[in-house]
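I am writing to request your help with a piece of structural work I have in hand. The matter concerns a single protein, recorded as an amino acid sequence and a row of backbone structure tokens. Could you please explain, in whatever detail you think fit, how the structure tokens follow from the sequence? Thank you for your consideration; the sequence and its tokens are set out here:
>
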Amino acid sequence: EVQLVESGGGLVQAGGSLRLSCAASGFTFDDYNIGWFRQAPGKEREGVSCIRSSGGSTYYADSVKGRFTISRDNAKNTVYLQMNSLKPEDTAVYYCAAELLFQCRASRYDYWGQGTQVTVSS
């Protein structure tokens, strides 16, 4: 049973911080690249960040660069998204996803989590 389970979302004031976690099971976690995506009301899903299977390379959307940091702990089968200086426009459901082959360079993800809500108040 493949699972990706997000946690850590919640309500925070603008300027605050949250750390999201994505706990994986049922597959060889350290073979997979892990991405974070978000979908805000009325908007398309967008890629936020991605980290290679080794943790050696990371990628960020321009909208979050300098504020968000992705990391992973392969020993714990967990990836994190540290979100600082949060803005109301960061409000969205955040999803983690895993892909095996594309090194964070494509949108073809194999597994998806259920999402966690992040709400940033102004």
